Structure formats: C-alpha cells, structure tokens
Amino acid sequence: MLSSLREFESELRGSGVRSISRCTNLNLAGGSLTLAVLRMHGDLIGGLATPDFWVLSRRDQCDLRKPSQECCNSGTKKTFPSDILQSFTFTVHSSDLPLLQVKMATHLAALCPGKGQPFQIQPRSTPKPGPDELLIAVKSVALNPADIIMRDQGLFITEYPTVLGFDMSGLVLDLGENVPVGDDGFQPGTRVAAYSASAWKGCAPDYGPFQERCLVPWQHAVRLPGQNMSWNHAATLPVSVQVPLSAWDMMGIPRMDDKASSDDSQDDDRVEKKEALLIWGASSSIGTMGVQTARLMCQDPKSPFAAVYATSGPTNHEYIRSLGADRAFNYKDPKAVESIVSAAKEDGLVIRHCFLATGQLSLCQAVLKEFVDLSPAEGKTTAKIGSAPWIPADAQDVDGVEVIFVMPSTVEEERLEQFKYWIGTYLRKHLSNGSIRPSPEPTVVGNGLDFINSALEKMSQGVSCTKLVVEVGE
After folding, report:
1. What is the mean pLDDT of residues 126-155?
2. Other beta carbons within 10 Å of 226
3. 232 located within any domain
C-alpha cells in the first residue's frame, strides 16, 4: 500500500508522468501509457477507510464516471489510503490526453475564531506529518481547565483562527520521517492516546485536538495496550499523567525507573520510609493520577514514602482510597490542616512533599510548615510543593517551604525527552501491567465537535471527580 502523497507521486513518475504539481493539477502524459486514477468504493480496514484506485491505459474506453464497469478490469489495481486524496475529476483535452485534478483531503475542525469567541465547525486541509510526527484520526477528546483559559484569554495563541485542546485518543493514519515503527513504535492503525503539542507550536491549528485530524510528536503519544480500552477512557490519560509526573520531577523526587536495579532483599538497597506524600485536590483529574503515581512510589522499597495522604470532598473519599490513598481528608473542614498534621504524627511520618492539583496553596503551606526542620542557615528549604495552578502573585512565602509551578521544559529537546518518558515509557509500562488505570471516570457530553462549546460551559460551572469528554470520530 502506498502510504503517502510522496509515494503516490513517485508511482506516477515511475509510470511515465512527466510533471506533477503538488496539490493542484497532475498532467498525466507519458510515453505509450496515459494514466487515469479512479476512486473506487472504500472498505473499512483496521478502522481506516481505504479507497481503491485503478491505473488505466488510453485504450480503455469505459465511462470514467462509472469505474465499476467491466472494461476497467483491464487496468492495474492500486490501493491508496483515504487521507492521501479526497477527490478528483477526469477530463479529456483536445490532445486526447487526460488531466487529473487532485484535491488534498480535508476534515472538520472546531475553529477558535478569536479571543473569547465560541468555536465554529469548519473544514480545513488535512496536514501531512513532518519529521518525528504522527497524523492522528481523533476519536475522543477530553477537556481541561486550560482549554477555557486559552479560549477566553488567548493564552499561548499567536494567530487566529486556530484549533485548541490537549487530550486526545485516536488512530495513527500516517507517519513522518524518523518515527519509530514496529512492535515498540507506531504504524498506520496503531491505537494511541496523545498530549497535544499545540502550546509549544504557537497554537498552530494543525496541532490542536479539537478536530478530526491532528499532528502530534511521536514522543507525546502512547500505544494503547490491546483493544479493550475505550477511546473515551484513553482520552482522559495524557494530561492527568503528565502533570503529577512533572511535579515529582520538579520537586527532585528520583524516578523509579532511573534507580539501579538490584536485589530488594539487600538492606543497602532500602531507605527508611518516613514520609507521607500529600495530594491536595485528589478528586480532580490530575489529582486522581497523583494518587495513583504516589501509591506506586510508596511500593518502591528505595523510596522514602510510606503513605499517600489525599484531600477531597467527603463524597469522593471512597474513590480516592480505591486509587491508593491511605488517608483521606475533607478539604472543606476548617480543621483540615490540623487533622492532616495529627494523622502524620500518629503514623510516625513527616510531610515534606505535596502535589497541589487544585485548591488553596496556603493550606498546603500550613501543613508542610509543621514539618520544616530549618538548618542554622535560616530559611533553607526542606519541603516542596509542586503546584499545578498558577502561583498567585500575592502568595505568601513560608520559610523552609518552596513552591514550584509545574510545567514541562520550554526547551524543545528537553520537553520531547520528558514526554517520551512520561507518556511513552512510564504510562505505557503501567497501563500494560495494570498498575495504573484511567481516572477519573469520563462523562461524555456528546458526539460531534459541536459539543465542545457546551462541554467547556459545563466545565466552567464546575465538575468533581470526572473528566468531560467529547466523542469526535466513530
């Protein structure tokens, strides 16, 4: 199967075509064979619509508008994926040489026309993946608070109209150069979840997931294990996993996979487990994955963490315990800070690392302050908070407690390596062995890009312990 327009052009040239103008008109005149390429019926193969194309000689006299005629069977059958060519027409010039007019494929997108404006559903040209890129047929998208900020405030957007979004799941349609292939890589038809690179591309519209086709760096994508995970569940994964993993990195917590492997029975390999890891806002999407990834750290004999403490509303306590929280606290309780500190002392633990998924920074600072052990050099940091929300300009400094805003590197090479680990290595490993599951459960707002506007409005009204999803493709 020819999998790219480049290969298609190469095939035509190899058959005697003298000149090809990309994306416009192809003058098919060459030697003893004049080519006509006809689209036949499409078959669904592996989730990809694959139309059949035929190569005919000039001597074939069949009606070109009816390619199913018997006389067409004298041609040579060729197959091209549907994302290469969308439509074409055949005409005959006075020289009796055919002209093939080719249009590149288009797809529907929820375009953001301007700051603060609702999305509009419009067609746009389907791009070809560049080096290290995947073209994905988007099946589901999950929504994040940052989507509202970008739509309303124009954050990161350099030019309108554009396409927004972060979380997606779908099928790989095409690969650019240098993309790894095979069992450990990607190929057309691979099921993936992916994190958009839009924010690092000036919000160029080809990279936003709120459309039927989207470009993604392969480092931002993970192969889904098996066929059982739904598109909706898969779409909830990328941001939910990336943010807490980024927090652990930025707080200087060693990655489990980076530690030297050795016999766990040796005492030298073990460390004293004396810390509880605090997740504030644990029922948010990134908070639930914070609990799951923290639980895995607690299970590592080389990690200093012994327990996961988490805050949420009381109605979600049972759920976050099912994800791995050892203790759950009501963040609405006026004595929440006191309760957390008392529990840690009762357990013989200290709390010096906190992931703030959502909520009040000052409450996290108040908890960690109780466990700060200042050195003679006054103010030395001994506790850290990784904050997913923006750090307020009026946030108070607390001696011994460092607050770090969680975000990937702004250096392209570093960011790609980070995502390659967070999404391609860590997430793939723990999805495959079942130690991480999609969380929280998705709520489907609707099927079709036109539901993204209403989904964002629903999110702005507030949701708890769920992730809003819009189904894009079947």
Report:
1. 96
2. 8
3. no
